[in-house]
Amino acid sequence: MQGLYDPRYEHDGCGVALVARLDGVACPEAVRRGLTALGAMEHRGAEGADADTGDGAGMLVQIPDRFFRAVCDFPLPDPGHYGVAVCFLPTDERRRQTLEWLLVEKITDAGLEVLAWRDVPVRAEAAGRVARQTAPVIRQLFVAAPGGMDGDAFERALFLARRRAELASGEELIVPTCSSRTIVYKGMLSAPQLPHFYPDLVDERFESALALVHSRFSTNTFPSWELAHPYRMLAHNGEVNTLEGNRNWMRARASQLESELLGGDIADILPIIRAGGSDSATLDNVVELLVMAGRSLPHALMMLIP
Predict the structure, then answer these.
(1) Which one of the listed residues 14, 27, 72, 87 is annotated catalytic?
(2) I need a surface site. Which of 35, 42, 61, 299 has the fewest CB within 10 A?
(3) Alpha carbons within 13 A on the beta-carbon side of 247
(4) Cis bond leading into 176, ω under 30°?
(5) 127 Cα distance to chain centroid
(6) On the CB side of 305, how many CA atoms lie within 13 Å of its CA?
C-alpha cells in the first residue's frame, strides 16, 4: 500500500532556507530564526571521516550596524556609507600580512578609505578536527565610501577593488563577501556548529531583516572553508550538470564583455570565474558580474536559465 511518501521525489542535496521580515526592519529574531532553520537542516549537510567536520554551513545577513557600532573601537560612518570585507587569510603571518597589504592597496587605489581591521572572534573548539587543521585566520576590513558616492556605485567600487586584489594574489586571497549591504559568516562546519563557532551571531545586538542559511552536501568539489555557502549573491541547492560547458562559454565571451557602468574596468577583473570554484561558486561569480553591471538580481538569474 502506497502512503504519502513517494520515492520518485527523493533528492539528496544541500539544505537552504531564508527568513525575512517583510517590513524590512532589522532585528535579532530574524537571525535567531535563521539559526533555528539551519539547525533543522543538519541532515542535509555531510560529514567526512571526521564526523565532527561538516562539508560547510553559513549565514548571509544584512550588515549588523548596531552590533558593529557596539564592538568596534573606531568610529563608523552612517549605514550604507561603509562596507565590510570578510577575509579568510593564511595562518602564516608573513603571507597574511602580504595579502592584507595587497587588499588595502587595491581598495585605496579605488578611492575608498580604509578604516580598520577587526579580528572576528571564533571558538575553534566548536569545529571538528579536520576543520581546525585547515581553518583560516578570519578578519574583517572596514571600508568607507568617499563623499557623494551612492550605494550602487559604492558596491561596484568594492567589487572592482576586491576582484583586482584577488587576481593580483593569484587567487590566494579569499574574500567571501565585500559589501556595504550584506555580510556572510560561514565555514567548514556542520549546521549546529555555526552559532557556536561565531559568537557574533548570538549577540542580542546582532540584527538583520533577513537571514539566508545553508547546510552543504559537497558534490563536485571537496569541502573547504571557501566553498561553504552562502556566497556573495546566492546559496544553491543542487548540482549544475553543464558546468564545464558553462565555464567554457564564459571564457569564450570574455573578449566581448562590456558594461556602461563598469566601463574599461571590466578588463581588470577578467577572468570572471574564480579558479577552483565549485558549480555554485561559479554560478555566483557570473550572477555577481551581471548585478554589478546593472541588472537586478531576478533579471540576472533569469538570464542564466536556458
Answers:
(1) 14
(2) 299
(3) 16
(4) no
(5) 19
(6) 6
- Distance between CA atoms of 276 and 261, rounded to whole angstroms? 28
> What does pTM read for this prediction?
0.90
C-alpha cell recorded at residue 39: 539547525
Q: Where are the alpha helices (DSSP H) in 51-184?
A: 65-71, 93-109, 129-134, 151-168
Delimit the domains of the chain by residue range.
12-303
pLDDT of residue 275: 83
Distance CA 253, CA 106 (A): 26
Q: Would you state the cell numbers that stand for residue 132, as one nine-digit string?
A: 581546525
Active site residue 14: yes
Question: What's the confidence (pLDDT) of residue 2?
Answer: 59
Topology at the third CATH level for domain 12-303: Glutamine Phosphoribosylpyrophosphate, subunit 1, domain 1 (3.60.20)
Beta pairing, strands 137-144 & 82-89? antiparallel
Contact, 107 vs 83, CB < 8 A?
A: no
CA distances in angstroms from 117 to 97, 103, 150, listed in the order given: 12, 12, 23
Element (H, E) at 287: helix 279-292
